[in-house]
Write a structure and sequence with these properties.
Length: 561
Amino acid sequence: MKHLWLTAGALLLSAATRAQTPASPGSAASLPTPRQLYPGLFEAVQLGRVYADGKTFVDARPSGSATPAEIVAAYEKQRTQPGFDLKAFVGQYFLPPVAATDFYHSNVAAGIRAHLDTLWTVLQRPAQPQAVPYSSLLPLPRPYVVPGGRFREMYYWDSYFTMLGLQQAGRTAQVRDMVADFASLIDRYGHIPNGTRTYYLTRSQPPFFALMVQLLAHAEGPSSQAYIQFRPQLQREYAYWTADGAQPQPGTATRLAVRMPGGELLSRYWDDSDQPREESYREDVEAAKTTAQPPAEFYRNVRAAAASGWDFSSRWFAPGQGLGTIRTTRLVPVDLNCLLLTLEQTLGRAAHQAGDSTEAPRYRQLARARAAAIRRYCWDDKAGFYTDYDLDARQPTAARTLAAVFPLTYGVATPAQAVLVAGHLRREFLQPGGLLTTPVASGQQWDAPNAWAPLEYLAITGLRRYGQHALADTIAHRWMRVNLRGFAQTGKLLEKYNVTATGSAAGGGGEYPLQDGFGWTNGVLLTLLNAPQPTQRPAAARRPLAPPRKPEEQKRTKAIQ
């Protein structure tokens, strides 16, 4: 690809000068990304690996009064001088970010519930109504909770599972604050970005906003006006995911909308940019050297995988191959379309509450049509499993992943299909610590041996919906057990877990070190701890699940390993 290796001159100074005006929260265009603010310097820092984690630089901001244009001019003047030290230059002009949990030290002896209750405050960030000049952080009108570690901003699908925990902790006001924050993002940008950074604005993430509104309405009770209040944002969210749906011919796609061979409308993951991700710039540039795809196509597929939340997984690769074969935009994801079906159902409910007798049945019909299309295209009858649909091969993919639980969670699967999916989960996915994300050990973080809280929760919920209570209880117990073992070992709750190991519970793989905190793990764990305990469990699960809230808890935690 062609990089922006610019020298001092009119073009560079013009680009940097345009960024001098402090950003307003009004539009994406008014919030330039770090690569746009620091042309030339940005590439040098990221490719030169000044920071081990490329996300550090894109989250940094100027440490003094110098504007981006002045910093770039200083860089251009100094970089050719003998003895120039790029790392020292960056240290002089930039203030690196601080991790969300850098100043927090857990007290294992106080117990897991005390730890969880403390973390809601540790991970909360104050409202920031106006953008900070030259910062990549997007403004938000209300306080919000971040995941933790390197993830210092609010993320889209993470936040739903964090909100589950907030609701369980009786923090309904915090749930409402975060729903309002997401609504404000839709109002400003027309969609919810991957996360609240300027460099995330070209893509979204799994669309959980409708489920957030449902959760808020449930938490507030019968008097809640959440469905009516957030109906306009639900409508704009739906428009984003289905835009251009009227244009494609059968078997083709335009941005996020896919017109299936039979004429049905489904959706895919997409990113409006075809450049390397700014937060993983060096990794993407290096990975592009391993692919036969044109660079722009490769970068788009990488970004679309980031939009899926599964970055990265063998799910998106050619069978048995690696990242160089990624083809996210050629797949119709089963999980995404189950979430959009839920959005349609939520819009129908919102229309009904608003007394809109035209829109309510229309959205219900759209949901029925999408459910039928998911069953038609994503159910592999020979395998007895739900997978993504391959637009090129015109058939379901062979990749078996935990995305298959979404049709159970959201009521798309038939009872017979649910039985078959449950059988596969029991035979191919179930491990001592819960369910594998996929049975493939690729070295990617969304593959074996790793497991992630949101998928475990959705699997448990989906299995219970179809009466598979024994398997659901077993998964819930094993997942809580690996969480508690990890807490006893490290004093932390982690982003992901190795569910095959009997020693260390920490997960591995991916582009960055294992993160702690951790928002969605906390939310799911508290939800499972608070769930009614089954009176009968499989033999593997007949042990105490919820640890006591006392200093001797550490001893009890070890007993359930």
